[in-house]
Design brief:
By secondary structure, the chain is mainly beta. It has strands at 5-8, 15-19, 30-35, 38-46, 61-66. The chain has one domain. It contains no helices and 5 strands. Strands 1-2-5-3-4 form a 5-stranded mixed β-barrel. The radius of gyration is 11 Å and the shape is globular.
């Protein structure tokens, strides 16, 4: 089962579930995600291992990289 990470693109926005692409991510990390709308910056709201995979459907956008503060 692949890891899944929850990312918010806005402070109190909806959580988008993404493929962490093998990156070591933690809650609060800034990341860049490849979305249908282009590359977007967001913050990890739900760490890998905390998402129930069976509740999700369809393909997920990949996290491209972890951003420095």
């Amino acid at each position: 089962m692949p890891d899944i990470v929850g990312v918010r693109f806005e402070l109190a926005g909806e959580v988008h579930y993404c493929d962490p692409s093998g990156l070591d991510l933690s809650v609060g990390d800034r990341v860049s995600v490849d979305t249908d709308e282009g590359e977007r910056e967001g913050h990890v709201a739900i760490a890998p291992g905390q998402v129930i995979h069976s509740d999700l459907r369809g393909p997920m956008d990949p996290v491209l990289r972890k951003l420095d503060d």
